Amino acid sequence: MVFRRVQMSRQQPWRADHPDAIRVDRSTRWGNPFSIKEYGGRAAAVAAYREAFAAGTLPVTVEEIRAGLAGHDLACWCPLDGPCHADLLLEIANG
Predict the structure, then answer these.
(1) Cα 38 from Cα 9, distance rounded (Å)
(2) Which domain of life is it from (predicted)?
(3) What phi and psi values does residue 76 have, to the nearest 5 degrees?
């Protein structure tokens, strides 16, 4: 089974179509602490997240990601046609 990233929306009931999706936005422990505004864009903020994860400076581990997120779609606010830290979380959780 392929798990994917889901874009949350206030206009459309995304939860109805993805009842088992886990939120990984900034309001959760899985969120990207690097802001788009601070880093000058989404791609740079996602790159900072990847670097911090590789360096072991994020408050989540590979084991925690696999235990908490494996087997689920992941929901974030990022547009689906661009980079998102949830892509890395999906790779780790289901890789």
Answers:
(1) 23
(2) Bacteria
(3) -145, 170
Contact 93, 70 (CB under 8 A): yes
**The total number of residues written for the chain in this structure:** 95
Q: What are phi and psi of 41, to 5 degrees?
A: 145, 165
Q: Is the overall model pTM greater than 0.85, yes or no? A: yes
What integer pLDDT is reported at residue 89 of this predicted model?
98
Q: What is the pLDDT of residues 22-77, one digit of tens each?
A: 999 999 999 999 999 999 999 999 999 999 999 999 999 999 999 999 999 999 99
What is the token pair recorded at 40?
């000058």
- Asked if 30 contacts 60 with a C-beta cutoff of 8 angstroms, the reply is yes
Helix axes 42-55, 85-94, angle to 10 degrees: 40
Confidence at residue 14, expressed as pLDDT on a 0 to 100 scale = 85
Place of tokens 């400076």: 57
